[in-house]
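Need residues for this backbone.
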């Protein structure tokens, strides 16, 4: 029962995180770039940031819990001798990339966001959105027994 609850919560977190970034990248960002208006991004972030970060945190907690269920012994996971351990390792790498992009954007781009620096943020948004979609792809691969 715990396993099923964790999978449901993990999926809900992925839905919010990935869906929010797809909305940002596909609707808000193009309009902000066209109008050269960074306020559009700020307005979206004001509404989404807390909810999105809570969803990401829920994914991290449930993902680590699921990993513990799949691999109760750390050395079995670290062997990377199954599609499951490889996919989980890839998802951890995607998480690291997401965190690095988010930290860079939050502390170096967003505080100085102007019309002139909007393109830099756009690259980050596209990057984080791509990583979010890859999270879903590899997560589905875990539940489907691999993608190959």
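Answer:
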């Amino acid at each position: 029962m715990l396993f099923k609850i964790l999978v449901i919560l993990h999926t809900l977190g992925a839905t919010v995180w990935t869906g929010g970034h797809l909305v940002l990248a596909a609707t808000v960002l193009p309009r902000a770039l066209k109008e050269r208006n960074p306020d559009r991004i700020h307005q979206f972030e004001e509404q989404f940031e807390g909810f999105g970060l809570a969803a990401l945190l829920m994914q991290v907690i449930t993902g680590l819990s699921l990993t513990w269920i799949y691999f109760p012994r750390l050395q079995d996971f670290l062997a990377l001798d199954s599609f499951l351990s490889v996919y989980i390792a890839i998802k951890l790498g995607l998480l690291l990339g997401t965190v690095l992009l988010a930290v860079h954007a939050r502390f170096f781009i967003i505080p100085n966001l102007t019309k002139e620096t909007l393109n830099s943020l756009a690259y980050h948004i596209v990057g984080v959105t791509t990583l979010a979609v890859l999270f879903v792809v590899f997560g589905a691969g875990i539940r489907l027994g691999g993608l190959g």
